[in-house]
Amino acid sequence: MGAYCLMYWICIGLLLGVCWGADPFANFNLELSYVTASPLGVPQQVIAVNGKFPGPDINVTTNYNVVLNVRNKLDENLLMTWSGIQMRRSSWQDGVLGTNCPIPPKWNWTYQFQVKDQIGSFLYYPSLNMQRASGGFGSFIITNREIIPLPFNTPDGDIVIMIGDWYTRNHTALRRALDNGKELGMPDGVLINGKGPYRYNTTLVPDGIEHETINVDPGKTYRIRVHNVGVSTCLNFRIQNHNLLLAETEGYYTSQQNYTSLDIHVGQSYSFLVTMDQNASSDYYIVASARFVNESLWQRVTGVAILHYSNSKGRASGPLPDPPNDEYDTSYSLNQAMSIRQNVSASGARPNPQGSFHYGSINVTDVYVLKSLPPVMIDGKLRSTYNGISFERPDTPIRLADVYKVKGAYKLDFPSRPLNRPPMVDRSIINATYKGFMEIILQNNDTVVQTFHLDGYSFFVVGMGYGEWTENNRGSYNRWDAISRSTVQVFAGGWTAVFVSLDNVGVWNLRSENLDRWYLGQETYMRITNPEDTGNKTELPLPDNALYCGALSRMQKPQRISSSSTQLVCSKLYVIMVIVFSKIFYGLR
Ligand SMILES: *[C@@H]1O[C@H](CO)[C@@H](O)[C@H](O)[C@H]1NC(C)=O
Ligand SMILES: *[C@@H]1O[C@H](CO)[C@@H](O)[C@H](O)[C@H]1NC(C)=O
Ligand SMILES: *[C@@H]1O[C@H](CO)[C@@H](O)[C@H](O)[C@H]1NC(C)=O
Ligand SMILES: *[C@@H]1O[C@H](CO)[C@@H](O)[C@H](O)[C@H]1NC(C)=O
Ligand SMILES: *[C@@H]1O[C@H](CO)[C@@H](O)[C@H](O)[C@H]1NC(C)=O
Ligand SMILES: *[C@@H]1O[C@H](CO)[C@@H](O)[C@H](O)[C@H]1NC(C)=O
Ligand SMILES: *[C@@H]1O[C@H](CO)[C@@H](O)[C@H](O)[C@H]1NC(C)=O
Ligand SMILES: *[C@@H]1O[C@H](CO)[C@@H](O)[C@H](O)[C@H]1NC(C)=O
Ligand SMILES: *[C@@H]1O[C@H](CO)[C@@H](O)[C@H](O)[C@H]1NC(C)=O
Ligand SMILES: *[C@@H]1O[C@H](CO)[C@@H](O)[C@H](O)[C@H]1NC(C)=O
Ligand SMILES: *[C@@H]1O[C@H](CO)[C@@H](O)[C@H](O)[C@H]1NC(C)=O
Ligand SMILES: *[C@@H]1O[C@H](CO)[C@@H](O)[C@H](O)[C@H]1NC(C)=O
Asked: Where is the Plastocyanin-like domain (predicted)?
């Protein structure tokens, strides 16, 4: 510790000399624990963050260094992931088993990363073992620096709405069902900000359920950030009598368009600008209802909250606003998804316009077709697959295994097409080429709509369709203003095509956001290395506080809760120093 302190004093000189004006730090303590809640009238243990369910908003400004000390007060291993945040050059902080050893119960672990070149609405949630089905989630907001203008007038307020399907069974019970080869079945309801539905219908909603109320002032325009944090249900989101002006999704500004309702898939985030332009003759319903299911059977899977104007003259009553009437028109939702375009003239996080990056004229270097099928039995266990491979969770994180040259921790043989062979459980990952430009076609041969998510990147959603994708479909790609995002839907019996520029070194998880499919093995990783990097330039070094497990578990020291204040101060200074050093390398890049 003494040495760290000494090095700190050396570094302070460097700090004053080289790193003047360094990006600010934002520190958070996140404590995950069980609390009792009854969102649907049935008491159950939910996962709270700092005692809150849903967890608190994390709200930072672009380029901040974010330090999050996560304390695990659950009775099982934990990892938090920061969905949609690119963790540039540092998959070490991504919080999935391919990059991090889990945080054991009673332990804490500090994540640290810089939120670089991103502005918008993101999510955090626990990544292991279906825990998100019990909570632990929250909104992660990155705001713009003053010098970067917004492509709309500054809203009068910022409102977060978390929607998601919900089971009264907890994550361990849901896991047990899947382990026993059973599908999860219909959820018990939809929560809005952790609360059950407003009693819009006395037959459908029992008495005594607490609902969410969003308070607004007439005439004002709010930025409403909506996240689907559910298990597997796509939800149609709408606000009675109000237009939703779509402005941003997962860190990119959209071409602004009004929608009366929008389908929000599991894991997706959107910002709407909503003007309170109604006469407040009563409150208004906010609705999130199940999609792509038989709505008359799934009536109870509907979330209802209340939009309350400060001059409201009465309670909301009567029927809910109608969902889209497209029972016989499968293309409605698909066309809606493709109508979400990037505003190519709006500034992103960087002062230069995003439109100057002409992704449509870059030659594709690698093509991967990832096909999902309905879950199957493999060796007597229910499993789900991409290209016939059900991913076996790593014992030793993939990148950590690289650093310590652990043999056999994974295979670099993930097939670029579905193969004609029996499904298997394996640790196959994608050997991707640094600076390549990859086309990924997600072919969903499963019976349910899926969402696909890639860590470490945003990708361009260039096409979607029904049936089997063929090369001819490339003719229909949007090569000009496709939206860039990190989470995209793939309709049952259809395909989605994305382009991704592989400029972020690391090992990155790609997965189904449907929690059951993810748990059953529908994920893999993309490994991107830069053989020319010998100076920590394109990838940050293994963090000093890395946990060790699997083949490296003998390297893990027991966690001591230190009470010595000097030790604490010194280790904090050491952390700052490490950052300053990496800042120097980064700054000179
Ligand atoms: C989850 O539910 C099961 C019953 O299905 C119960 O035994 C268990 O204690 C619950 N776990 C937590 C953390 O509440
Ligand atoms: C655990 O939290 C303490 C402060 O509460 C902190 O000093 C320590 O660095 C944390 N441990 C890790 C591994 O992040
Ligand atoms: C796109 O962004 C520009 C620049 O901020 C803004 O003026 C314009 O209104 C936006 N256009 C649309 C259609 O969203
Ligand atoms: C986030 O912080 C910014 C400025 O610090 C504030 O304007 C905004 O309202 C905050 N958003 C939320 C949802 O707390
Ligand atoms: C409440 O829902 C039930 C079941 O869908 C329906 O039959 C009934 O008409 C609804 N009641 C009202 C007042 O809308
Ligand atoms: C969206 O709808 C609002 C009314 O709610 C209207 O004032 C606005 O002009 C519309 N914007 C666009 C881009 O259509
Ligand atoms: C308020 O608006 C509703 C529908 O938009 C209309 O039916 C009602 O008459 C209006 N009430 C008043 C007092 O203007
Ligand atoms: C939905 O379920 C109801 C009740 O079982 C049934 O009558 C109806 O035909 C179903 N609708 C569709 C489109 O399958
Ligand atoms: C893309 O490929 C075409 C033909 O294969 C070639 O003519 C063109 O120069 C390439 N473009 C770039 C930017 O490399
Ligand atoms: C991974 O890809 C690189 C080229 O990008 C190649 O040199 C290497 O041999 C591949 N590794 C394996 C194990 O296939
Ligand atoms: C799955 O693939 C088969 C063979 O290509 C096709 O006949 C079937 O319609 C597909 N089903 C779905 C749900 O995509
Ligand atoms: C990269 O970082 C590691 C760990 O901090 C360090 O051991 C190594 O010397 C660094 N390499 C260079 C070339 O700076």
From this structure: 33-146, 158-312, 396-532
The helix (run of H) or strand (run of E) holding residue 120 is strand 120-126
Q: Give the ligand 6 atom nearest the CA of 257.
A: 13
Residue 523 Cα to ligand 5 midpoint, Å, equals: 41
pLDDT of 292 > 60? The answer is yes
Q: Are 103 and 547 in contact (CB under 8 A)?
A: yes
Portion of the chain with pLDDT greater than 90, in percent: 84
Nearest protein CA to atom 12 of ligand 2, as residue: 109
The Cα 340–Cα 337 span in angstroms is 6
Taking residue 505's Cβ as centre, other Cβ atoms within 10 Å add up to 23
Which segments of the chain belong to CATH 2.60.40.420?
2-150, 157-338, 358-529
Report how many helices (DSSP H) and strands (DSSP E) the chain contains, helices first.
Answer: 6, 33
Pairwise CA distance, residues 467 & 464, whole Å:
10
Mutate to test the pocket of ligand 5, among 198, 201, 297, 317 (most ligand atoms within 8 A of CB): 201
Is the CB of 245 inside a 6 Å radius of any atom of ligand 6?
yes
Question: Under a CB-based contact definition with an 8 Å cutoff, are residues 446 and 432 in contact?
Answer: no
Asked if 268 and 235 count as a contact pair (C-beta separation under 8 A), the reply is: no
DSSP string for residues in 276-288: --S--SS-EEEEE
CA of 389 to the centre of ligand 4 (A): 43
**Residue 314: predicted pLDDT:** 97
Question: Quick one: which of 445, 531, 524 has its CA closest to 490?
Answer: 445
Q: Whose CA is nearest to atom 9 of ligand 6?
A: 258
Q: Where are the beta strands (DSSP E) in 436-544?
A: 437-444, 450-454, 459-466, 484-485, 487-490, 494-501, 506-512, 523-529
pTM of this prediction? 0.92
Cα separations in angstroms, 405 against 398, 507, 521, 536? 10, 15, 25, 18
* Strands across the sheet containing 430-433: 430-433, 523-529, 506-512, 450-454, 487-490
Q: What's the pLDDT at 5? A: 36
Report residue 73 as tokens.
């007060």
DSSP state of 22: P
Query: For residue 132, which amino acid is it?
Result: R
Distance 105 CA to ligand 2 centre (A): 14
Ligand closest to 150 (CA) is 3
CATH topology of domain 157-338: Immunoglobulin-like (2.60.40)
Does the beta carbon of 35 lie inside 6 Å of ligand 2?
no
Instruction: List, chain by chain if needed, residues with CB within 6 Å of any ligand 11 atom.
Output: 445, 447, 468, 492-493
Q: What would the CATH number be for the domain defined by 358-529?
A: 2.60.40.420
Residue 9 main-chain phi, psi, to 5 deg:
-65, -30
Please work out whether the CB of residue 273 comes within 6 Å of at least one atom of ligand 3: no
Ligand 7 center to 239 CA (angstroms): 16
Q: What is the mean pLDDT of the chain?
A: 91
Give the model's pLDDT for residue 156: 98
Q: Is the pLDDT of residue 3 over 50?
A: no
Ligand 12 atom with least separation from CA of 581: 5
